[in-house]
Write a structure and sequence with these properties.
Elements lengths: L4 E12 L2 H7 L1 H17 L7 E6 L3 E6 L2 H16 L11 E13 L2 E3 L1 H10 L7 E4 H6 L9 E6 L8 E6 L22 E4 L3 E3 L6 H16 L5 E2 L2 H5 L8 H8 L3 E10 L2 E10 L5 E10 L3 H30 L7 H14 L5 H14 L4 H16 L6 H15 L7 H15 L2 H14 L4 H14 L5 H11 L7 H13 L3 H14 L6 H11 L3 H12 L7 H7 L5 H14 L15
Parallel strand pairs: 4-6, 9-11, 9-12, 10-12
Antiparallel strand pairs: 1-3, 1-4, 2-3, 4-5, 6-8, 7-8, 12-13, 13-14
Helix pairs in contact: 1-2, 6-9, 9-10, 10-11, 10-12, 11-12, 12-13, 12-14, 13-14, 14-15, 14-16, 15-16, 16-17, 16-18, 17-18, 18-19, 19-20, 20-21, 20-23
């Protein structure tokens, strides 16, 4: 019997509303309709969204997805397809779907545990033809979907003692979309933020010192993030106890963003509520809350400061990107051009990377001494090499090295640029020691910089120390779970598992990255070599064929050259996997196998 394992997963449960009644009225027609639904609407499509059915329940099923975002995307597509069949002949099926993120026990091909049980219960409160999701799913969706969910509050679910807060998507509201988040247009060249005094709710005057100390810690933590300016604590303190419109405060202090907060105490427990506000419009662009114990006030303050810094970093960066996109092209400065380039880099798609390079070249033409533009530009060139987007590796390396030299010494206090430069140095020339020194500096400046922790993880894998990498990738995800670049940590986890001799686990993480970031093709290279190492040859061949589209120059030697930053043992195993999957093997001089 297979040993059991635990993991966190997105679980979907679905069944047909009123199935027994339908069977009673027309057994043959109902069973035929359910079978058709399972065959044509579920099994044929669910794999495209990173999901798989692990249990059929007669009139429904239970499925696991590598991503909550993809589970919701598949559910909405499925329901829209089913709702479109209303006018067709035969039995009309209305399906309820519930989606949760929870702990599951894996035994063979089956799943058990809290996550499975909760999904089945959440499904019961879904509207017919719609879906219900748990708090964990709703929070994970933030900024990643335009589907509108309605908060129906805490619900008592059959068989569960604890009430659960539920959001639903109703088919009657399928045309409703969320409004885009906004950020204030500002002529300043760097975003700025003020941490306002937090409200002490029900804690008594004896808690005021604790609250003020927490604000001080958060301000100090944010001050380490060089991507935005932080207004000094004493300037913000002037607004303590005053009721002033946030737009007025923003204008008086000259800031773009404001962080507001409150603490509510209950004995030795406290709840911290936070929200980030746009200083121009007064609109809320981020919010979160945290429960903690007050027993060790310093540990609690540090934990909250880390959480806020890690969350605000990508949130403000995304707001800055949106701000830059809205500016007229003739008004774009070098800073804005770099911000506009970042989403193209994060996309990790072949067609996006040249657009990023063009924007960064334009920024350097406007401001030749812009170290950040040069550093990020060198990273863009490194991606051309590492992901096999260019057939001319020598030309890309030459262009990247020029930018590396332009950036070196010009980005000493910029964690994002330091990390970009380290990535380029790592991928273009394999100089791991030099790259590590830059990453260490980035972390020293901003200990909550998620991307720097991700690159530190990759460095450990490339050095041949994969077991040290997992903590780095996990910290990056904990610091910034909603970061648009978080999928790269999943790629790293996959490579680390492969390097540690666990190709099946490597496949799980790489598929999760693909589900998290649809449209990428280069990770199929990882899937091919991991699947071949795991003996899943059909999967390996299919993944390699997907990867090779648009890459006619690919051979074993070309792959080895592009990934020369890996340690020799890991690189040899990696390329062996690609060859086993069907890649042309030209590593021995004079031998060049023909591709079938």
């Amino acid at each position: 019997m297979d040993a059991s394992r635990r993991r966190l997963a997105a679980i979907l449960s679905m069944d047909v509303e009123g199935f027994s009644t339908l069977v009673e009225a027309d057994e043959a027609g109902t069973l035929e309709a359910v079978g058709r639904m399972q065959r044509d609407r579920v099994l044929l499509t669910i794999g495209d969204f990173g999901g798989h059915v692990f249990k059929n329940t007669g009139d429904g099923c239970l499925a696991e997805f590598t991503s909550a975002v993809n589970a919701v995307a598949w559910a909405s597509a499925f329901q829209r397809a089913m709702n479109g069949e209303d006018g067709q002949e035969g039995v009309r099926l209305r399906v309820r779907i519930g989606i949760v993120v929870g702990d599951v026990v894996v035994i063979g091909d089956d799943r058990f545990g809290e996550g499975v049980n909760l999904a089945a219960r959440v499904q019961t409160v879904a509207p017919p033809g719609g879906m219900a999701i748990s708090r964990g799913v709703f929070e994970y969706l933030a900024g990643k979907t335009d589907i509108y969910f309605t908060d129906i509050g805490e619900q008592a679910l059959k068989g569960l003692t604890e009430r659960h807060r539920i959001w639903i998507w109703d088919p009657k509201l399928v045309g409703v979309r969320r409004r885009r988040r906004v950020a204030v247009p500002d002529p300043a060249t760097q975003p700025s933020i003020v941490v306002l005094p937090f409200d002490n709710l029900g804690g008594g005057e004896g808690r005021d010192g604790f609250v003020d100390g927490m604000v001080e810690e958060i301000t100090a933590s944010l001050s380490q993030v060089r991507e935005f300016l932080v207004i000094a604590r004493h300037s913000a303190y002037a607004y303590k106890g005053r009721s002033v419109d946030v737009r007025t405060i923003a204008a008086e202090l000259g800031v773009r963003y404001l962080l507001e907060g409150s603490l509510r105490f209950s004995g030795e427990r406290m709840r911290v509520s936070l929200r980030l506000v746009d200083g121009g419009s007064g609109a809320q662009i981020w919010s979160d809350r945290l429960d903690a114990q007050t027993d060790d006030m310093f540990e609690a303050q540090d934990r909250i400061a880390e959480m806020v810094s890690g969350a605000l970093h990508p949130t403000i960066r995304q707001a800055e990107i949106e701000r830059s996109r809205r500016k007229a092209p003739q008004n774009l400065a070098a800073y804005d051009l770099v911000m506009r380039a970042l989403p193209h880099l994060w996309a990790h798609r072949r067609e996006d990377n040249p657009q990023a390079i063009a924007l960064l070249d334009e920024a350097l033409a406007l401001e030749p001494s812009n170290g950040r533009a040069a550093a990020v530009g060198s990273w863009a060139r490194a991606q051309q090499i590492a992901y096999n987007w260019s057939p001319d590796l020598a030309a890309e390396r030459a262009a990247g090295r020029i930018l590396i030299e332009r950036a070196s010494g010009a980005v000493d206090d910029d964690p994002l640029a330091l990390t970009a430069l380290a990535t380029a140095i790592m991928l273009i020339d394999g100089q791991i020691d030099r790259a590590d020194a830059l990453i260490d500096r980035a972390v020293a400046i901003d200990v909550n910089h998620a991307w720097a922790w991700t690159r530190r993880g990759f460095s450990r894998v490339y050095r041949g120390r994969p077991e040290e990498a997992f903590a780095c990738f996990e910290r990056a995800n904990r610091l910034s779970p909603r970061d648009p670049f978080s999928f790269n940590s999943f790629i790293g986890m996959g490579l680390a598992h492969f390097a540690s001799g666990r190709p099946r686990e490597a496949l799980v993480w790489t598929r999760r990255a693909l589900a998290e970031k649809p449209g990428m093709s280069w990770p199929y290279r990882d899937v091919a070599t991991f699947a071949a190492a795991a003996g899943e040859m059909e999967t390996a061949r299919d993944a390699l064929n997907r990867f090779l589209v648009g890459r006619p120059e690919m051979t074993a030697n070309f792959a080895r050259d592009a990934m020369s930053f890996m340690n020799p043992a890991l690189l040899a195993r990696y390329v062996d996997g690609l060859v086993a999957a069907g890649l042309i093997d030209d590593r021995v001089e004079g031998v060049r196998a023909a591709r079938a």
